[in-house]
Specification:
523 residues; alpha+beta; 3 domains; ten-stranded antiparallel β-sheet; three-stranded antiparallel β-sheet; 17% strand
Length: 523
């Protein structure tokens, strides 16, 4: 095993004999391999990832033929004179009793683990329907598989992998640590030398092999069926090159969650990207609901910041004895009416800052709106909660990162400004109509931001309690502000949900500046 060689020289694990192989470890890590040797040893990350996952799940759930904790592994412990509590015990009937290990799941824990996988719902396109593979009576998302890798993260990962393997070495028997487990030591080094693993792993090839298998119609002649199917596809693909550009083909087909990009010739609030899913339902909103929705649009339009500042200055001058909190409250109540009057007066004073789009915004939206059950924006596919009842996917989780100012008391004149994370469930999607052609799409959500309904467990996971959640005073956000999460039932705390963040499939989190000097050339 000897994974302690990758730890710092003064790490306490190096002197711990009882938890490992009965000896101290004083050697350092072996010499770093060149890029060619690393790639030759690893071959493919996909199979390493799969085999490590199989070994972990098989051992934890004690699956016959998959577990590494078997009689031979216990005999190894006995021969090495370590972990006496796990040594096999002979019985009077000639059989051998293997004492249960601390990592082994009992029947109740196995059922709970399978129930989580059976009932989990993930966003559309995030993963296959894993519940079909579960019988009740993960592959974890690791940073190494990210689309964008950073040098500092990979160096830290090399250190973390050694520490994780040592933690596993203290728990699992030596038989668990075969060559596949050891190969994970070199995964970060391979990514640092060769770049993102998406260009080298086997998933695309395995997927394409599945496509070739689908061409088989005559099982007695599989090669001929594959050849005919491949030839037919190539012919159709070649012919599609001569079709008009407005005809969707394999060559110009947009991604599944592509939005239209918006219109750059109007106010940004009116040109947000995105496209609805399904037909619209035309309804009439009440006056109070429409006022709340319009208020959110007004206070999230950066193009009228100068007007909000001007209104705040007027209120501060007129109410010099009031604290900032009261002035902010007056501002939120009176700004819409003040802006409408200001725009009307502008017809006489002619303020050049007031554009036609600002006039349209100040006049307010129509009380007749369109409602949708789904919307695609920011690379995500959203559905309202009611749509998911009979589906195996979950697309109603919303997260919002907002810059919020708060006051500690009614007399506080120094508001604290900070980032606040809001977690929500999408209830409704409405499209406000301003004038004849301008539109703004809003998401109506149930929100949790702080308090007793949110907590972070010892492993760093954020968990939420949505039971009996009441509607907030400001339930709306702009659709362009929404990012997506999904919620998984916490098997330990009943009725609590664990938050899992997602990223768009076609987006890459690239740094604005890339330093070419940081690239190492070992090949």
């Amino acid at each position: 095993m000897a994974h302690r060689r990758w730890l710092e020289l003064l790490h306490p694990f190096r002197m711990d004999k009882d938890s490992f192989d009965g000896m101290e470890e004083h050697e350092g890590p072996p010499h770093s391999l060149t890029g060619e040797k690393v790639l030759a040893e690893l071959k493919d990350v996909m199979h390493t990832e799969k085999n490590v996952c199989d070994s972990l799940i098989g051992t934890l759930m004690n699956i016959d033929g998959k577990t590494k904790d078997h009689l031979k592994g216990r005999r190894d412990l006995e021969e090495m004179s370590i972990r006496n509590e796990l040594h096999p015990e002979p019985l009077s009937n000639g059989k051998v009793y293997l004492p249960p290990a601390c990592f082994e799941m009992d029947k109740k824990e196995k059922q709970k683990f399978c129930n989580v996988l059976k009932e989990v719902k993930v966003p559309d396109g995030y993963a296959a329907n894993i519940s079909r593979c579960i019988q009740v009576k993960p592959t974890p998302k690791i940073q190494l598989c990210s689309k964008v890798l950073k040098q500092n993260d990979l160096f830290n990962m090399e250190k973390d992998i050694g520490k994780i393997l040592c933690d596993l070495e203290r728990i699992f028997p030596p038989s668990f640590f075969d060559v596949v487990i050891h190969l994970s030591v070199h995964l970060a080094s391979e990514a640092r030398l060769g770049g993102p693993i998406h260009y080298r792993w086997m998933y695309p090839i395995e997927k394409y092999l599945g496509t070739l298998k689908s061409y088989v119609r005559n099982k007695s002649k599989p090669e001929g069926s594959i050849a005919e199917g491949y030839l037919a596809k190539e012919c159709l693909s070649f012919c599609s090159l001569y079709l008009p550009s407005d005809v969707e083909t394999i060559h110009n087909k947009t991604s599944r969650n592509h939005d239209d990009g918006g219109d750059d010739n109007v106010l940004p609030t009116f040109c947000m990207p995105g496209r609805p899913i399904g037909a619209a339902n035309v309804v009439k909103l009440s006056y109070d609901t429409l006022a709340i929705a319009h208020s959110h649009v007004m206070f999230n339009c950066s193009e009228i910041d100068f007007l909000r500042t001007e209104h705040l200055n007027i209120l501060s001058h007129q109410n010099s004895k009031k604290c900032k909190r009261d002035i902010q409250h007056l501002h939120s109540q009176e700004f819409e009416e003040w802006l409408s009057d200001y725009v009307d007066e502008d017809m006489t004073i002619r303020d050049n800052r007031i554009t036609s789009d600002i006039e349209t915004l100040a006049n307010g939206p129509s009380e007749v709106v369109k409602k949708y059950k789904g919307y695609i924006i920011n690379g995500f596919r959203f559905h309202i909660k009611d749509v998911e009842k009979n589906r195996t996917t979950q697309n109603s989780g919303v997260i919002l990162q907002a810059l919020t100012s708060s006051f500690s008391s009614a007399r506080d004149n120094n508001p604290i400004v900070g980032d606040v994370t809001y977690y929500g469930v999408l209830k409704d999607i409405i499209e406000l109509q301003y004038g004849d052609e301008k539109k703004v799409v809003l998401f109506h959500c149930d929100w949790i931001s702080n308090g007793s309904r949110i907590k972070v467990d010892e492993n760093g996971f954020t968990t939420l309690d949505f039971r009996g959640l009441k509607q907030t005073k400001e339930p709306y956000i702009l659709a362009s502000q929404a990012q997506q999460v999904f919620y998984v039932a916490d098997p330990v705390s009943k009725d609590w949900k664990v938050v899992i963040k997602t990223t768009p499939r076609d987006n890459f989190d690239m740094d604005e500046q890339i330093c070419i000097d940081d690239v190492e050339t070992h090949l």
